[in-house]
Amino acid sequence: MFGKLKIKKQKEKQVNTTKNYSLEEIQAIYQQITQNQEVVNLLNAVFHPLVLTLPNRQVVFANKSFENYLQVKHQDILGQYLGKILGCVNPQELDACCGETLYCAYCGANKTFQALEQEDQYSTECHILSKRDSTIDSFDLKIDGKKIYIKGISLYLLNITDIKNKLRRLALRNYILYKSIDSISAINLSIDFAKEKCKNKYLDNANLEIKKIVNNLKKYRIIAEAEENKITPNLSFFSSLGILNKTINKLGKLLEEDIERIVVTDESEDVEFWSDFDLLEMILESMLINALHYSKEKVLCGTKEVEERIIFWVENKGRLEEEVEARIFKPFISEQGLVTGVGTYLIKLLGEGILKGKAWLETDKKQEKIVFYFSLPKLQEDE
Questions:
Q1: Is residue 192 within a helix (H) or strand (E), and if so which, with residue range?
Q2: pLDDT 10s digits, 49-65
Q3: To 5 degrees, how large is the angle CA 178–CA 183–CA 188?
C-alpha cells in the first residue's frame, strides 16, 4: 500500500516527541495537511483505516475509513492519543497516557511508534482490549507504519488492517483442534477399552471428555455473542457462597482430582444478591480453572461484601512474567493462528461488558501470590 503513496520528502521540522500539543496547535497542523487536497483525496480513497499522527502519538488526521470503522468524527479525535481513541484499557485503568504504562512495552502500536523513531517503515500486529462507552471489545490489528513529511512536518502514517474476522476463523479452527482433539482421542481410547473390557468406567471417561468438549465450545460461542452485544442478562436472586460452591462442584465433574486443591476460606461471607447466575458461574469457572492450571498447589477462594458490592477472589501460588501479565484479560490472537488468554478475556468481557462489574489482578512477587478479583454491584440497575 505504501508503495503507491508518493509524498515528496522535505526538510523535516523538529517535532517534540514528548510534548502534548494544544488543540489550537493540532488544528493548525490539520489545516496545513488538508490544504493539499490531492493528499486528502488519496488518503480518503484508501479502503483501510488510515491515521496520521505526530511522533508523540497525537492524531492530526484520519481518513473516512478510520472514522467509519470507529464511528467517530474527525473533530472529536483531533489531538487525541491513538490509544485513547481505540479505548485501550491500560491508560484508562492506570490513569496514564498512551505509551506510558508498563504493559505498553508489549503493545504492537507502541512498538510501531518506537521503531519509527529510527526506521522509515515498520509493520507488526497489535492486540488491544478496548473499553469505550462501557462496552468491552478487543481489536486485532495489523499496523503498517511509515514516516512521512507533509509541509515539512514529520508525521507517522499508520495503515490499520482489521484482521479480527480472519483471525477469529483461524482461532475457532485451532480452538476446536487444540482443545478438542485430545478429548476426542480420549473418547476413542475409552470406547476401545470398553469394547475389550466391558467396564463402565471407560464409558464414564468417554462421557467426561464429551462434556469437556461441550464446555469449551460453549465458552467460545458465549464470547462471540458477547462481542456482538447479543447477550442480555437474565437476573435471578441467589447467594455468593451458593454459586461459588456450585461452580466448584461442577468443575469436580470435569477436572476430577484437581478439584481437591480448591479451598473456600472460612472468612468467606455468604451474601444474597441479584445477577445472571449462568454468566457469573462461567466467570468463576474461568477464574478457578486458570488458577488450577497455573499452580499445582492449593487454590484459595472466597467471597465477601464491601460497600454494597460482592467480591469474589481466587488465589494461587506463583509468579507472572511481566509479558504474561501484560496479556491478562486479552485474547492474544496472531496470523499464525495462535490463541491464548481466552479464559481471562471471558472474565473481563462478561464481567465488565455484560454484568457491569470489575475484574482485576493483583500479584505479590515476594510472597509468590497471584489473586484474581471480580466484583459486581449487589443491586443491578434493572432492579
A1: helix 164-197
A2: 999 999 999 999 999 99
A3: 130
